[in-house]
Design a protein that fits this description.
- The structure is a single chain.
- This protein is of the alpha+beta class and 59 residues long.
- It has one domain: SH3 type barrels (Roll), CATH 2.30.30.
- The protein has 1 helix and 5 strands; from the N terminus they run αβββββ.
- The protein has a 5-stranded antiparallel β-sheet with strand order 4-3-2-1-5.
- The longest helix has 9 residues.
- The protein is globular, with a radius of gyration of 10 Å.
- It starts with a helix and ends with a strand.
Length: 59
């Protein structure tokens, strides 16, 4: 359910992603497929399981 929402509203946007506790990730949404969100920041990729995301917001 969240994957189409992320693709439609956040693809190629700079975001913060909160996964609980101290787990907050930042970067540009490069892809969202197969249950995985891919962010890039400073040339490095971060892959996050969509089912672990609690909140996402644009910067």
């Amino acid at each position: 359910m969240m994957q189409p929402f992320i693709v439609e509203h956040y693809l190629q946007k700079d975001v913060d992603v909160y996964c609980g506790g101290p787990d907050t990730f930042q970067g540009v949404v490069e892809a969202c497929a197969d249950g995985v969100l891919t962010l890039t920041k400073e040339g490095k990729f971060t892959h996050i399981a969509i089912d672990k995301i609690i909140a996402i917001w644009a910067k």
